[in-house]
Amino acid sequence: MCGRTSCHLPRDVLTRACAYQDRRGQQRLPEWRDPDKYCPSYNKSPQSDSPVLLSRLHFEKDADSSERIIAPMRWGLVPSWFKESDPSKLQFNTTNCRSDTMMEKRSFKSGSTGAADSPENWEKVWDNWRLLTMAGIFDCWEPPEGGDVLYSYTIITVDSCKGLSDIHHRMPAILDGEEAVSKWLDFGEVSTQEALKLIHSTENITFHAVSSVVNNSRNNTPQCLAPVNLVVKKELKASGSSQRMLQWLATKSPKKEDSKTPQKEESYVPQWSSQFLQKSSLPTKRGTAGLLEQWLKREKEEEPVAKRPYSQ
């Protein structure tokens, strides 16, 4: 459902945007893990790395679970039990996971059941341009043949709110406010069942349409986020031939006579100075077809004098 995100903030700005209060009420900034892997982008697609916010307790056993870390992770969860050596061979899509089935599917039942939320700007703009905090689940995968471990995540989705239902029937599970973010991340103090109560749709969201340039993940410019107007009024312009036809119709086409105006008894036969043509006494007819018909009848009824055989 959610196939594009955006997080184009510089690393130091993103760090300040993720400021929080720890359990003692002190203002803190999250620490980075593998900061060099973070690449700002206006157009992040699945399998790219995105910044994920999570509890320090996932990495340090004795850490305070209210303390936070930012770690770039692969978008598209690779479960820890996956046995292939290449993560791209995973046969199913784990970019998103449905809230109503995530506790049942094996893909999301891993040793790391703690939740993470990803502070990315979605294609939608939320609550006065704050970071759009979406709830997610992450896992750690170790290659069977050894090598660097891979951290990856998936975004939890819920039924769309009324405002978004015309666009899509699913939307990301948005953690609305610092209290919700804190409860979702602090798995040391908040039970899984309590945290799941935070997963629901919200109307606290505004949005705008963006250009189709986001469909190509290689496009990485501000245009990917710029609002576009879906209703484009296209002005129709007549071609040269059409303009000439319209001009002819305006100046030379026969005008309809007003039914209330008495018609004049006039012949529509052209007033040629020919000895062969005289005014017709036949009922008048309008238009080229009427002229032709009158001509033919005249020819049949009375042959012009110049064409009669001479006789004594």
UniProtKB/TrEMBL annotation:
This is Abasic site processing protein HMCES. Residues 250-272, 293-312 are annotated as: Disordered. It comes from the Eukaryota. One of its GO terms (molecular function) is single-stranded DNA binding. Pfam families: SRAP. Residues 254-267, 295-306 have a biased composition (Basic and acidic residues). It is an enzyme of class 3 (hydrolase). It comes from Rhinopithecus bieti. Belongs to the SOS response-associated peptidase family. GO terms for biological process: protein-DNA covalent cross-linking repair; proteolysis. Keywords: Covalent protein-DNA linkage, DNA damage, DNA-binding, Hydrolase, Lyase, Protease. The keyword Zinc does not apply. The lineage of its organism: Eukaryota, Metazoa, Chordata, Craniata, Vertebrata. Sensor of abasic sites in single-stranded DNA (ssDNA) required to preserve genome integrity by promoting error-free repair of abasic sites. Acts as an enzyme that recognizes and binds abasic sites in ssDNA at replication forks and chemically modifies the lesion by forming a covalent cross-link with DNA: forms a stable thiazolidine linkage between a ring-opened abasic site and the alpha-amino and sulfhydryl substituents of its N-terminal catalytic cysteine residue. The HMCES DNA-protein cross-link is then either reversed or degraded. Its EC number is 3.4.-.-. SUPFAM superfamilies: BB1717-like. InterPro entries: SRAP (IPR003738), SRAP-like (IPR036590).
